[in-house]
Each structure stands twice: as C-alpha cells, then as structure tokens.
Amino acid sequence: YAYHPRLQIGATMPVFNVQDLGDYADTVGHSGNNIGVGDLTIVHPVQLLEQSSSPVNLTVAPKMRLPTGSRGQFIGTGAVRAGGDVAVGRSWAKTALNASVGAELQSKRTALRTLHPGHTVRGGLAASMGINRAWTLGVEYTVAAVVGTEDWDVRHLPMEVAFTVRPRIGDKGDVTVGGGPGLTPGYGTPDARVFA
Description:
By secondary structure, the chain is mainly β. It has one helix and 16 strands. Helices cover 2% and strands 52% of the residues. The radius of gyration is 19 Å and the shape is globular.
C-alpha cells in the first residue's frame, strides 16, 4: 500500500495446502494437517532517490518476518527475522540496470533435520532492453547464502538466472513472462522456474 509517493508498506503470508497427505506426509512433518500458513512478512520500502532529480533510483526496504507458520509442518522457521534490502538502478531510453543487496538476521537458530536456518545475505542483478515500443527483453540473476553455520557447503548457496519477455498490452499495461534454471544444488534452488 502506497500511502506517500515515496513510502509503501506491504505484508505477505503464504498458505500451504496438500491435497493428498498419503503421498506428502513427510513434507508436512507427519503433522496430519494438510493446510497451514507460513511466516508473516512485513516490508516497508522507502525511495530515497529518484532519477528525475538524482543520477540513480535508490530504495531501502526494511523487512521483518514473524513466526506465524508451523515449524512442525516445515512452513515456518520458528524465529523472528529482521533485515532489509537496498536497491539501486538507472534507466535510459531503451535499457535499464538494477542491483540489490540484502540481509536478514534470525533470532534463534535450530536445526530442522538436515537444514540449518540462520542469518542470510542475498543479492541480485538485472538488465533489460527495449527491442521496440512493444517488446522488452531482460535477464535477472539472484544468489543467497546462509552465513555463520559450521557445516556450510554449496547447498547453502541457492543461485538462479531468469530470462524475461515483457510485451506491452495497449497503451497502459504490460505483462512479464519468463523462466530460467537453477545454477546450484542449494536448498531453495529450483531445477527450473517459470512465471508470469
């Protein structure tokens, strides 16, 4: 929700639903529940610089995650997480470049089977180019890492790349479709992801 031209606030809470517990009982920790909610995330982006009056666009987005999810169903960390992201970008007539870095600190760290949730850092790069007035092509790269864990390995380094196409629809709308592969065998890295 944008309550000021440079201030927004948003919240997300994922809902988890398994249709057949027989096949996926282990996925929900043998809890017997086929539905649940994840952790509540609250974010408050603040635009500090705007390209109309500065060389770049600069946004800071503080973030907090509250442990509303069920750790027993593997849909919550059971801990408060706080952090945020910093994003910087610049656009020209037909191209745009953007980068972001962020971090989250976790209030407590308890192993969940072979997973060791902890403090995380992340980053991303994106570039786009307008082919003509109706089509824009883009590429995005994202990486994240768990820090401070004693048994760190490549599984704690999810990384992926996505290619996007954004056709313009009419005079005031557009839609983004894309997809790409995961680049590491890290937890949270998909074999492939498609989105629209």
